[in-house]
Amino acid sequence: MQPTPPSDFARLRRKPQRGAYDQATIHAILDAAPFCHVGHVIQGRPVVIPTFHWRHGDTVFWHGSSASRMIRANAAGGEVCLTVSLLDAWVLARTSFNHSANYRSVMCFGVPSLVDDPTEKLAAMRGFVERLFPGRWETLRPPTEQEVKATAILSLPLTEASAKLRSGPPGDDPEDRDWPVWAGTLPLRLVGDAPVPDDDVQPGQEPPATPFAG
User: Please, is 205 exposed, middle or buried when counting C-beta atoms within 10 Å of its C-beta (0-12, 13-18, 19+)?
Assistant: First the structure.
C-alpha cells in the first residue's frame, strides 16, 4: 500500500494501516462497486445522493438530470465527496468490542466538471452502459438529441482519493481466544437473480449477463 496520501485532507486518521492511495487499488474498488454516493453542500446544507458511476482512466463520472439542483451546484464550482463501499464479510469475534466487518471503500474529493461537449457526453453515456452491460450499447436505439440534452454528466479527476480496506479474521485479544463461542467470518457477496423479461420481448432476444454477481 502506498504510504503517502495525495493531501492531508485525504489522509486516513483512524486505523491508517488500512489505508491505500495507489491508483490500482482505488480503480479496482471503484470498478467493483455497483453505485456510489455523492455528498454536496446545497444551500448551506449537506446532501448525499446515491447514483451510478463509472470510471475511464483516472477520471470518475456520474450522471443526473440537467434540471437537478445537484447539477446546478456542481456547475457553480461546488466541492463534492464521492464514496463507494463494498461489504465483503461480517467478522464475528469473541467479544462485542472486537466484532467488525471486512470491506473495501474509496473516498474521492474535488470539484467536478460538467461534460457539455455533445460528442464527449455521448461517449460518456456509452461508457455508463458498457460498464454495466458490455456490448449492449450497439444494440440499443441511439439516444435522441433531447435525451442527450436532458442528461447531465459530471466528471471528477481522481487526484485526491483514498481507499480503506479490512480483510481477514477477527482480532481477538489473546486472553479471549479460549472463550466458548464461535468466531470467524461470514462472507457476503452480491448475487443476481434470474432475469425477468417484459411482455414485449421477442423470441430469440437473450438477456445480458447479470453485472456484479459474485
Answer: exposed
Determine the Cα–Cα distance for residues 35 and 25; give it in Å rounded to an integer. Answer: 17
How far apart are alpha carbons 108 and 157 in whole angstroms?
Answer: 9
Predicted TM-score of the model (pTM): 0.90
Report the candidate in 89, 26, 88, 95 with the shortest Cα–Cα distance to residue 57: 26
Domains in the chain: ranges and CATH = 16-170+180-186 (2.30.110.10)
Confidence bin at 214 (pLDDT 50/70/90): low
From CA 152, how far away is CA 42, in angstroms rounded?
17
Q: How is residue 152 written as a grid cell?
A: 447531465
Is residue 115 classed exposed, middle or buried when 0-12, 13-18 and 19+ CB atoms within 10 A define those classes? buried
| Distance of alpha carbon 56 from alpha carbon 91, whole angstroms | 33
Q: What is the pLDDT of residues 97-129, one digit of tens each?
A: 999 999 999 999 999 999 988 899 999 999 999
pLDDT at 71: 75
